[in-house]
Amino acid sequence: MIIYQVLPRLFSKGRFSSFNKKTFDYLKSLSVTHIWFTGVIRHSMDAPYVKGNIGSPFSISDYYDVNPYLADDPDRRLDEFKAMIRRAHNNGLKVLIDFVPNHVSPDYQDSHGGIKTLGRCDYDWTDTDKIDYGCRENWQKMLDILRFWASMGVDGFRCDMVELVPLDFWQYLISAAKAEFPDLLFIAEVYDMNKYSLFSYQANFDLLYDKSGLYDTLRAVSCAGASARNITTNWQRLGPLQSRMLNFLENHDEQRIASKRFAHHPELAYAALGVSALFYPTAFMLYFGQEIGEDAADGAAGRTSIFDAARAINPLGKLNPQQKAVLSKYRQTLALKAELEESSNYDLCYCQSPEGGFDPNHHFAFLRGKDTLVVCNFKKSDVSLKIHIPSSADSSLPETVNLVVKAKDFTIYRK
Hints:
With 415 residues, the chain is α/β, with parallel strands linked by helices.
């Protein structure tokens, strides 16, 4: 599973109609299987508490509507959204949207009786009002909202801040929704690794953000000099949960790889890409523009703003040589990921020798299947390595493989 997250108002012309066959063919060239549309459901605008000059896509003002500014004809906005879903499906792609269960906008209203709230917000989310889950009627209302979108053809939901909502609500909601729509996909934004098993096995989410695990680990190894040994530590800690993780290097909450707040250049995170996308058969997500090295230079603190009008990102437009090179790297990497979807995984770091040039603090090596070796170099210089492949790996590759791996990059060796 490869998910492409996009903020549609900043993609190409900023309309549902921007997602046409040309766009879908482009996404399929990246081996994308699912598109997560962020900022579709109608949110608050033109109110004193609204953040930025557009407003937050997580300050929902009507859960049964979409934002008029995304439609060519605002009066037909739901019809245009449904047509976009049909186009995606006809092109072999599935559609995800956000489900924001913790809060709504202070001016929330719908034609289905509204939602009871607590009259307060969490943290500094002053453009929201927290939903009252002591009111059992709200549980049914939230299920009805999911039914509305699933009946329209939506294939799944990225669920916002799931830790702020009662666990037994999730057990009720996901069980009831899947009884009616068995193939619905539920992705949890969860940050406490100690709760991963609860949301996987008890709440029955299909995928969990691995922000506090692999994302934080790779960022620390790439940018802060942390040891690459921590990648193995994270994998071992997750154990059987690894297959239920959603790996990523960017999303709307995180800083762009190419920004000055992260790696400065997309090429300086290729080693991290090799691990995030290829280590273990698990889901991977990229954020629109990541595949061409978007740096969010006009954004806020290295992020593409979700609150403000900003420069549109159009990876289908005219690209400069560096953008083309980055795009090629992503296409090759994700095509390999798709090819290796069901292949086994074998961490090789434990059996490498310093005599072969391997430094476990800066290098990471693993096998996928019997014949694909991936070696990642987090150093700032090119390295020559002798990689030992033990008989226990049951590989068709030679016992020793000699490789040169570029700085901050990864290399693939196949027989």
